[in-house]
TrEMBL record:
Signal peptide: none annotated. Residues 70-91, 453-477 are annotated as: Disordered. It catalyses: UDP-alpha-D-glucuronate = UDP-alpha-D-galacturonate. It is an enzyme of class 5 (isomerase). This is UDP-glucuronate 4-epimerase. GO terms for cellular component: Golgi cisterna membrane.
Amino acid sequence: MAPQLTGAPGPAAVAAVKPQFHHYHHHRLPPRHHHPAPASLLSKLAFWSVCSLSLLLAFLLLSPSSAPVAPHAAPESPRRSLHASPSSTASWGGAAWEKKVRASARVRRPRGHSVLVTGAAGFVGCHAAAALRRRGDGVLGLDNFNDYYDTALKRGRATLLARSGVYVVDGDIGDAELLAKLFDVVPFTHVLHLAAQAGVRHALVDPMSYVRANVAGLVGLLEAARSANPQPAIVWASSSSVYGLNSHVPFSEHDRTDRPASLYAATKKAGEEIAHVYNHIYGLSLTALRFFTVYGPWGRPDMAYFFFTRDILAGRPITVYESAGGSHQTTISRDFTYIDDIVKGCVAALDTAGRSTGSGGKKRGPAPFRTYNLGNTSPVPVTQLVDLLEKLLKVKAVRKVVKMPRNGDVPYTHANVSLAQRELGYRPSTDLQTGLKKFVRWYLEYYHPELAEKQKQHAGSNGKRSRGRNGSSSSAR
């Protein structure tokens, strides 16, 4: 039985997660001359040409890329948070590696699936991989362990999966050779594609990482899948962000999605259009799942509920946004959806995905193409989220209320899940208070075990006092 991804102890402290900013030095330009002498102009041109050629030659000779690279080694990333963690020494290939891959992907139940889960060390990926493994499906993970947020958290998730027999390959979806090898070693029946560059605001800092992961990465995966034999059915993570500036609520799959409010949303919308192309031309079975604000244990440190918890415990102010007004309300609200409900939707989508119809890279007939909202259907103001965290943490938050900046966020999300209910049997069952209670318990056990133990002792002593009072009342009667 695979272990549940809740409550595992971890580091004693959490580091603040910050986007990586890159500072560039701007040099003063030389004074401009409107009427240079011809000789002076030619001499300057010759001088700068020689300098440029010298610098280019020095770069080519001294560049690390000119040194031999070990076969299948993870590429060094010149900028953080784009590719694999700088500490990664991932490699793949060889008989021992193939044996681990096959063992992890081996199906252990009748009519089970063999599933490649990309982004398996991510939040949704680790929970989904564990759920599939618990019921006997073959599961192989793939993740590049990038440093968009704390890599120790990702390694911790991968460790839990390893204990249950799920091997997470340390590699990138942009590595076409690796993907071809994985599909060659294992005849996957399904792919659950969750690898992506997440986060709305980080796109203001590092836009190209979104294009590489969410557009080029998706195309690379679809190329590998359409060439595979057999072709797998693919379920992949789109986002509720595609609804963008849509004002019709609750958001339905039939609503327009051509007005994104962020680059992240635009790349996810582009992914949906690209998926349609591969379904139409190559017969790939494709299902897009639009997630609505997923939260829970082992979550992402860049999400509000996570860093609110961190900052409230540290006594630091938290920033709560208000919208500038509109047709709904001024308080920012989100359709918070608990991780277990999202995982049930992912598994149901895999179970109901029809087969791809291509072979040899050619379409042989129509294949399923589906899109579903996965949300909780109960939007909650962010101020209420903070109220619940204060109650659960037993600490008062220092709130700083400001107007929402134009950073890609939207003021309101609300999912219409009637299509998923009808076709997937999707029925979310976890309210925000219940889900946050489970998250806070995990957070304290993982980052502050001494505080978690203190709260347990306090709860136990309160329970004894309550039983004592009840006993006294009974005897008094």
